[in-house]
Amino acid sequence: MKPRHQRALLIVGGLAALGVAAYFVLRALESNIAFFISPAEVVAGKAPKDKVFRIGGMVKEGSLHRQDLTVRFVITDTAADIPVVYTGILPDLFAEGKGAVAQGKLREDGVFHATEVLAKHDENYMPPEAAHALEQAQKAQRTLAKP
Amino acid sequence: MSNRLINWFKYASPQSFYPLAGRMIPWFWGLAAIAFAVGLYIGFFVAPTDFQQGEGYRIIFIHVPASWMSMFIYCVMAFWAGLGLALNTRLSSMMAQALAPTGALMAFLSLWTGAFWGKPMWGTWWVWDARLTSELILFFLYLGFIALTSAIDEPRRADKAGAILALVGVFNVPIIYFSVQWWNTLHQGASVSLTRAPSMAMTMLLGMLVMAFAFWMYSIAVALMRVRAIILEREAHTDWVKQLPEVQGAR
Description:
heterodimer, B: mainly alpha
């Protein structure tokens, strides 16, 4: 074996070993790397008690109520709903039916008291006309699906 | 060897690569200039307004190409560094060093434009989610590579130390790329991927791809200019460098 083959083998072997190590580290850290947890996980009791955490999902349609600077809404992942109360300014993209991430504490009454609310948008980009057409098509489909 | 169409090994020597790089640089600058002009025109004037983000989404034409290049350049840099380590070829290591500052610039641009985009859309400049954090680590890897290789005076030893750092760091690239799939992140998923149709309007996608091409050509042009400077510096003791008209003219 030539020295350069030996070195190449050493590099490949080293990288493979590192790859395996990285895989195990990431698996072990999995729950800590998640930026937020879903309402279903909160209901399942995976939320830390009396500690600040982030909850993420969709803002439920028709659940948004404003009173001065205090807003109440329900965050949902369709499997479970968590009511949220927050006082402060919301990002422009925050809206019903859109993604949001709230940071705060879950009180004993089951209401999530948020200290920060962020909007999470999706990866779709299109002109407003296209979005409108898409919405119309979905509406038509829904009315067709009704008996 | 001589019966091959192109003798690639010929250009592994700094002496023959130096003039070749010099001839290639104007072409890459030209392509970059054209693609930047076309891409920015599409981005600002042709691409439609977005249905939820309005005009603000247009930062995508800088943010996404810069992010792609920051990851791609790191892979290329690690490849050259690894080749230099395995084969002991000087030029490969010089290429790796020439790419690092451009990669760092791309990673910085990605983070900076991301912050400018995050504030109006998400409501925050920065969050410690997996995508943002791993991109920040990439930026630090570039800085670490530059710092390490310039802290060691003996060039061949600097190459080796840098190569090991570059190769270890390469695992960060798939983590950045797949972070939005593997974990819950504030950053949205990929709009463009190899496995499914892009979730963007056609003209938006076109503008982004042209801009990515522009960033790519720019990166090659700058890296070639930098590698020529590194060759001159490292080979300053050789006769062929001393006889170059640009070196003699500088005296």
